[in-house]
Amino acid sequence: MSLTELSSVKSFGGQQKRFEHQSQSCNCTMTFSIYLPKEAETNKVPLVYWLSGLTCTDENFVTKAGAQAYASKHGIAIVAPDTSPRGEGVADDPEEAYDFGIAAGFYVNATQAPFSTHYHMYDYITKELPTLVNENFNVDPSRAGIFGHSMGGHGALTIALNNPGMYKSVSAFAPISSPINCPWGQKALGGYLGDNQETWKKHDACHMISIATERLPLLIDQGDADPFLTEQLKPELLSKAAEAHAHPINLRMQPGYDHSYFFIATFMEDHISHHAKAIKS
């Protein structure tokens, strides 16, 4: 499958690149960014996938997180996909709300019309995008991790828990810990998957921890000044699920931090180091 390069700039000795391609999973043109450290010029490098949150594209992370410096230090590639399908004919929230539809794909495969035509982000992240990346760049898919923020934190956790063996590490910033139990998740899972809540469970990290066959340690950072903390994010549910099922978790409540990329950038080095330790061992 062909890629069209949209941009390429040097950063910390490596290259920050952006591409678009025709996606079979999402039935539209999709965009992703990739940071390739200098080591990728001669050797296959480990990689991590970053999943962004509501309202974001791949560019929010690339321009705001400050991850390139740490990726360069550890010789790790970072792949940052978009958060949803886009373009002419792609269904959006009829009320144009920010928490559903375009820029709010929730990393699931929609089964409900009209979203089922394009919204197959789960397949895109777990199948199509890794195939593209592995075929076109000097990366080692056997040494991969995944992390994300908010909606993307939900995506990173559930995708890792649903695909044992695919990733060696996982972490999240302010994840939606239990979509079944918050308004964002209930709206999205109901809209994309329908009313049968049994089909929602594989996209709820707390449920997936209860049946996990792999115990990847979870690093979670959450700001205690996050305006979405109590109603939407509910990290205490994730902590309780991990404790109940002996799943290793390091949940760090960070005093005074909110939900923004200022928060993410502050602790990005810790997360890259967490992944580097696992995927480079």
What number of domains?
Answer: 1
Low-confidence stretches: none
CATH class, please?
Alpha Beta
* Order of strands across the main sheet: 1-2-3-5-4-6-7-8-9
| Class computed from helices, strands and strand pairing | alpha/beta
So what's the overall shape? globular
**CATH fold title:** Rossmann fold
How many beta-strand segments? 9
Q: Tell me the radius of gyration.
A: 17 Å
Task: State the CATH architecture.
Answer: 3-Layer(aba) Sandwich
Q: Whole-Å distance between the termini? A: 32 Å
Average pLDDT taken over every residue: 97
Share of β-strand residues: 15-25%
In brief:
It is built from nine helices and nine strands.
Topology:
Blueprint: E1 4-11, E2 14-23, E3 28-36, E4 45-51, H1 58-64, H2 67-74, E5 77-81, H3 121-136, E6 139-149, H4 151-162, E7 169-173, H5 183-193, H6 205-211, E8 218-223, H7 229-233, H8 235-244, E9 249-254, H9 261-279
Parallel strand pairs: 4-5, 4-6, 6-7, 7-8, 8-9
Antiparallel strand pairs: 1-2, 2-3, 3-5
